[in-house]
Design a protein that fits this description.
The complex is a heterodimer of chains A (188) and B (214).
Chain A lengths: L1 H31 L5 H20 L15 E2 L9 E5 L3 E4 L2 E5 L19 H20 L7 E6 L5 H13 L4 E8 L4
Parallel strand pairs in A: 1-6, 2-5, 5-6
Antiparallel strand pairs in A: 2-3, 3-4
Chain B lengths: L1 H7 L10 H17 L5 E8 L2 H11 L8 E4 L3 E6 L3 E2 L2 H5 L5 E2 L1 E3 L2 E3 L2 H16 L20 E6 L5 H12 L15 E4 L8 E4 L5 E4 L3
Parallel strand pairs in B: 1-11, 2-8, 8-11
Antiparallel strand pairs in B: 2-3, 3-4, 3-5, 6-7, 9-10
Helix pairs in contact in B: 5-6
Classes of the chains: A alpha/beta (188), B alpha/beta (214).
């Protein structure tokens, strides 16, 4: 019985020794081999390509900010196209990245920035005229017909009066077509 | 001599050091993730009815039969009128009420766009759809020369969000219309690449919206 136990013990000890040796070998191998990062590199490259693609797919970006510019949600499935963009937030009116007018209390343009009849935002009119002239000369040099089209990204909470003033000003400068930016609630 | 030559070509091949590229990619990914937009931005096409244009339109429409559908968004709710018959809900108008009144929820006014869509569908689109079409080759057979057009006239204090909801309600058909049209109920404006004009696709109710000051 004692002999059998000893041989069993021996076998067990051998197994343990073999396992230890295996572990030592693995640890040695790990120390000698550098970290394999090729698969990680593959994954990161795919993510990078995807992000770069989504970054460049939109013709125009609308940076949304809490309490300033949150676009309304809509069922519309129409996509946007390149044109003059006017952002109407609760604090300012921005045309092609340049602020042209302030918005007071999230609803009014200061009266000194309006025309005498109260419909036209003077600085917005000047900026739109300048951009229209540039676009017209660029279109004529390219041999294309210029279609005055404006893209309006307004905050969902601003009163209609403010958007109407922007539309009135743009139509005064002969912008004929308008598209309102919305956040799509369904794909397409 | 031969030994020397052999030694000259013994070059130890090492793995490419990917760490600098890894560093660059790891920096680029958070930057792109922060600047990427995961929401989809779309557009709604509208026309602006200036006073001068409204006068010209009126003169043009005098000799033609027009529906003249107008949605007035007031602080009380949606009031719908047509050029032909005046108020779309005469009994309510007689009592000084709008066609679709607002409801109050948590101190906020709720404009019922679902009811508006259903109202426009049942009152104007469904009874007239057989005699009117938005397809370009059938336009000359339309009873109403302004079929598909709607004028939206919001009060100055109405939030912009409500105007967008009204545009949605007048453009898209309600689920009840599934049996009336083939295909899905989406109404989409598309601008084919290289073209300057928008094209209308899908099934629409009144997609040509004209906004006007109240």
């Amino acid at each position: 019985m004692a002999d059998r136990m000893t041989s069993e013990e021996k076998a067990r000890l051998e197994r343990i020794e073999a396992k230890k040796a295996e572990r030592r070998e693995a640890a040695k191998k790990f120390r000698n081999d550098p970290l394999k990062i090729t698969s990680l590199m593959d994954a990161l490259t795919i993510i990078l390509i995807f992000l770069l693609k989504s970054y460049g797919s939109d013709p125009m970006q609308v940076p949304q900010k809490k309490n300033e510019l949150i676009l309304p949600k809509s069922d519309s499935m129409s996509n946007m196209a390149e044109c003059v963009d006017i952002q109407v937030s609760r604090t300012s009116i921005v045309v092609k990245g340049k602020a042209v007018s302030k918005v007071v209390d999230g609803k009014n343009v200061p009266s000194d920035e309006l025309s005498t009849d109260g419909h036209i935002i003077v600085k917005l009119k000047e900026r739109l005229e300048e951009l229209k002239k540039k676009a017209e000369s660029a279109a004529s040099s390219a041999g294309k017909k210029f279609v005055p089209e404006a893209f309006i990204a307004a905050d969902q909470k601003v009163p209609w009066k403010l958007v109407a003033q922007v539309l009135y000003t743009a139509s005064y400068v002969k912008y004929k077509k308008f598209s309102f930016a919305i956040v799509k609630t369904r794909g397409g | 001599m031969a030994k020397k030559r052999a030694a000259k070509f013994e070059v130890e091949i090492e793995d490419i050091n990917l760490m600098p590229i890894m560093n660059l990619i790891t920096l680029l990914i958070p930057f792109l993730l922060l600047s990427a937009q995961f929401i989809q931005i779309g557009v709604i096409l509208v026309d602006w009815q200036s006073r001068a244009r409204a006068r010209t339109q009126k003169k043009e429409d005098e000799n033609k039969r027009t529906l003249g559908l107008t949605i007035n968004i007031t602080s009380k709710g949606y009031d719908i009128t047509t050029k032909e018959k005046g108020s779309a809900c005469p009994s309510k108008t007689a009592n000084g009420q709008p066609c679709i009144p607002v409801s109050m929820s948590g101190g906020n006014k709720i404009y019922n766009r679902v009811a508006l869509r259903k109202f426009l569908y049942e009152k104007f689109w469904k009874p007239n759809k057989s005699n009117n079409s938005l397809e370009p080759d059938k336009l000359d057979r339309n009873i109403y020369s302004d079929w598909g057009k709607v004028t939206i006239r919001p009060e100055s204090t109405v939030p912009y969000e409500v105007v967008i909801q009204t545009l949605d309600a007048s453009r898209e058909l309600p689920p009840e219309a599934k049996g009336d049209v083939s295909g899905n109920l989406a109404c989409v404006f598309k601008k084919p690449q290289g073209q300057q004009e928008w094209q209308l696709t899908g099934n629409c109710m009144f997609p040509f919206a004209q906004l006007a000051a109240h």
